[in-house]
Inverse folding.
């Protein structure tokens, strides 16, 4: 008998790899934060001596979700813009009206803490963020025990955080140095968008991405106006501009990717680019419906993102999975498009791959870190259940998430956060609410 | 001091009438199942001697939601069709493949019980149903204490329930007679759809609707194929056919109403017809996006419906409100379209008006029955909150519903059903799950 830290026995497991399967009465054996084995529960009981066993008799286990696009700190502004937001109004600046007056390390730490608490309890174990003061965001993620990919932000627009593009980049690179020994923290180059970043900055980012082996996280082809502006200023569409500047390739994470010509979809596929699909934000900001079905058919790997609270009001990948599936069915005129297993893969392994983290997380496979989400199927609103995978995409809400582990540590038990008291969180948010409301 | 049954004191109240307002620190005084008064809490405390007081210090009170289109009993088939459903495949029959083998009074009673439990706990106090065996559906609704509008179904297709259109009508009318003394139960004429009902049956329905003062609940202009079939068989589009047959008017509840010419939108408005908008179902069955913004601008009154589990997997008006708002913003290219108060009105008062029940429910106004929903804003995932109305549409999930009253009776307290044990419900569903799974 091999002694291990933790054995999780579950009614169903959807490991994501191999694709499309749902195992019954299996268990995940975990030691030192890693998955040791995934096997039938009765074999596991014969083979392992766990220090701790969690039996989830009416639950699905699956990899923790990966939120491939967020501006976490903005969560302090949830509902602040209400029905009055228009993306075009601040397309040429990376910051929303109202937001600019408050951004500081404390705002970022507190806002990211609120966001992480919400994401983690909803089964999200890793998020890919783009915002100011990444050290402050790291503080929050590490406090809650969550995995984070933080942006080395770049824009030509000065802010309280940095004076110009070079200053943004040097501050981001310095944050990366400071945090290099944190296994939960990784970084992306994060040029804000084609409208807000100059050619020479993009060239530097391409070089840095190659030298440091970092993904490039950028808003791309989100609105028609972005494309028109690019044609006016540069004579070409943003994607072609990025191609000429050497940014396309498997490192690129194109966020939104809504307005695409067929040739651009082929280009994204040929270059091995990733897309962060943000369906709620795309509707709320009236940007459009991304051609997810066409992208997937051409072989572009798609992950899912919540975006920040200017474009969404929940950081909820269950909602995004559901909406992604519904919109893909509608756009393709085929109710069988984007089946449940494909959506679950988008929300997990595809996100990990985009972040270059798929050797570390994104599926329940021996050798990977134990980033795991358990969903309880006990409530009558989920009954009956003929297919757990289908239910996860179309029936379950994040309130049914019961347990979450990151690196084998229990961050959520019985839908309750283990790493922060709710009262502390609410006190922090109230403070900002009073400041922002006035 | 006037003695009353119940005083509910709330942090916020959105009464729906007058439109667009959110009251703070107000209370609803209730006696004998009716709203006596809505007034500032401190005045209420001075004026009333309640037998029972409920203090909801961080909650919003609003009218119970009205689900304007359901096939409640089908909830026993939740997820049964998974990603494989295509509406076209059974457009010409009113019943889904698989469903026909099981329909019986027991199926309808048990399925409607599951549906009512889900709806009620999610803040829905009334539903407008179209299905077989309405007495069995009434049994379930009354058991849980819920308001229901049941269909006097008509189709030309025989089923276990009835042999032909006349048989359907006489069985439905007889159910209405049996249930005439139940104040929670009302009826609609429910011709299934233009494809499944003959002209002479429609003529009889028009007469019965006028004689008995009953709304007419019908699937209408849901798919392009429905319209093509009508042109092929009758030489005209379904709406024009119904107009000629005398079915248009304030009694008509057109469900889906997706594929509409501009002149048809004008016609619906001029005739005072109602539309039951079912956004999730419209996407899932790839039917299309209804022109909600145009309908609303022309003055057509829209309510919201979940549809049955072939087109949706949750009976959740919070989801429908959110999706209705997002799709309207996208289609109108304007992020300010269909603001929160307008959506809340759709989900409450407009539903009541469509059912001819707006003197009885749909808003928190003295003299109406006390059909009320309370939503708790205590959870950190709803913080901060700058506008309770906006939060209800874009942030809140049905899991935040804390209390529900129908006719002044507490059906849900602290998100727990008061009128049935969860264990009984699950036992009933399991029985059917085993039968259906085999």
């Amino acid at each position: 008998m091999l002694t291990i830290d933790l054995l999780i026995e579950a009614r169903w497991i959807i490991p994501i790899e191999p694709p499309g399967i749902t195992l019954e009465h299996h268990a995940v054996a975990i030691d030192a934060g890693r998955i040791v084995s995934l096997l039938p529960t009765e074999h596991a009981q014969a083979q392992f001596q766990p220090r701790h066993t969690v039996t989830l008799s009416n639950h699905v286990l699956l990899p923790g979700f990966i939120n491939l696009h967020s501006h976490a700190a903005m969560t302090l502004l949830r509902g602040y813009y209400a029905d009055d937001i228009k993306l075009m109004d601040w397309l040429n600046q990376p910051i929303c009206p109202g937001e600019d007056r408050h951004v500081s390390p404390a705002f970022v730490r507190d806002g990211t803490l609120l966001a992480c608490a919400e994401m983690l309890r909803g089964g999200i174990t890793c998020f890919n963020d783009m915002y100011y003061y990444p050290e402050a965001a790291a503080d929050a993620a590490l406090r809650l025990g969550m995995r984070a990919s933080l942006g080395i932000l770049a824009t030509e627009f000065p802010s309280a955080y940095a004076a110009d593009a070079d200053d943004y980049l040097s501050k981001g690179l310095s944050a990366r140095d400071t945090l290099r020994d944190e296994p939960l923290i990784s970084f992306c180059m994060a040029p804000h968008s084609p409208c807000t970043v100059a050619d020479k900055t993009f060239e530097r980012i391409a070089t840095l991405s190659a030298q440091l082996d970092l993904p490039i996280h950028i808003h791309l082809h989100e609105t028609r106006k972005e494309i028109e502006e690019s044609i006016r200023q540069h004579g070409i569409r943003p994607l072609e501009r990025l191609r000429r500047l050497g940014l396309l390739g498997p490192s690129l994470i194109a966020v939104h990717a809504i307005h695409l010509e067929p040739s651009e979809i082929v280009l994204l596929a040929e270059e091995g680019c990733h897309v962060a699909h943000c369906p709620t934000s795309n509707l709320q900001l009236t940007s459009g419906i991304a051609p997810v079905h066409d992208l997937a058919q051409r072989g572009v790997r798609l992950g899912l993102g919540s975006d920040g609270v200017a474009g969404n009001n929940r950081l909820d990948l269950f909602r995004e999975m559901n909406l992604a599936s519904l919109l893909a069915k509608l756009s393709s005129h085929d109710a069988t498009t984007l089946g449940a297993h494909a959506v679950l893969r988008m929300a997990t392994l595809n996100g990990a791959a985009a972040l270059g983290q798929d050797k570390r997380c994104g599926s329940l496979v021996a050798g990977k870190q134990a980033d795991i989400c358990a969903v309880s199927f006990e409530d009558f609103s989920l009954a009956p259940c003929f297919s757990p995978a289908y239910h996860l995409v179309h029936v379950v809400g994040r309130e049914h998430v019961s347990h979450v582990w990151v690196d084998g540590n229990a961050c959520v038990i019985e839908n309750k956060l283990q790493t922060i008291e709710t009262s502390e969180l609410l006190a922090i948010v109230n403070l900002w609410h009073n400041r922002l409301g006035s």
Observations:
- The mean pLDDT of chain B is 95.
- Chain B touches chain A through 62 residues (CB under 8 Å).
- The first strand of chain B starts at residue 2 and ends at 13.
- The radius of gyration of chain B is 21 Å.
